[in-house]
Amino acid sequence: MTNTHNIRLRLRVAALCILFTLTIAGPACKHPGPASARVFRTGEQAQIGQLVFTVLDAEWKSQIEDAMAPRYPAHRFLVVGLTITNSGATETTLPHLVLQDAKGKTYPEVAEAAGVPDWLGLLRPIRPVETVQGRIVFDVPLGAYQLRVTDDPAHAGEKYALVEIPLRIEPEAGAAPVTPVPVPDEK
Fold it and tell me: Which CATH topology does 31-165 take?
């Protein structure tokens, strides 16, 4: 009976040690969530894995000029200019990125934006030590956003950083200037 009692006691102690270890180490093993993602400003380099992202600018568009006909958004087009450098020793594929708003709602890239100069396209391989510069497009409501950058094309267990894209509205090139409407004098 004493031998059985010692075995049970040892199993209980081992189970308590495992439970204690999981309680202490468990939070450290979780994937980083939005609260732990590092936030960068436009113009700063954000490195995630072997990819280094630098958002250069962002521009709102009411339409995209295409060879066939203009394309109109459901909301507004946000065209983001950026550079991406592969600092690794292997070729990889650039992931399609997403924007997120202040509430955490995400918006994927527009799948077809051929009318945008320097559009990065759908298939985006990048060789080691190569830097590409181009534009990506989103169809989103007018507002401030964060660009979620990652090195994981599959977005499975992704590590990511956020790049702030503040709301800045400038007149579109070729847009007619706004002229005030004269108000008749009241007599």
Answer: Immunoglobulin-like (2.60.40)
148-175 burial, b at 16+ Cβ within 10 Å, e below that, comes to bbbbbeeeeebebbbbebeeeeeeeeee
With 0.90 as the threshold, say if the pTM is over it.
Answer: no
Domain residue extents for the chain: 1-29, 31-165
20-59 pLDDT, tens digit each = 333 343 333 333 344 468 999 999 999 999 999 999 999 9
- Distances in Å between the Cα of 116 and the Cα atoms of 104, 126, 146, 176 are 27, 20, 21, 20
The arrangement of strands across the sheet holding 160-165 comes to 39-40, 160-165, 145-150, 98-100, 106-108
Contacts of 97 (CB under 8 A, 6+ apart): 109, 136, 147, 148, 149, 150
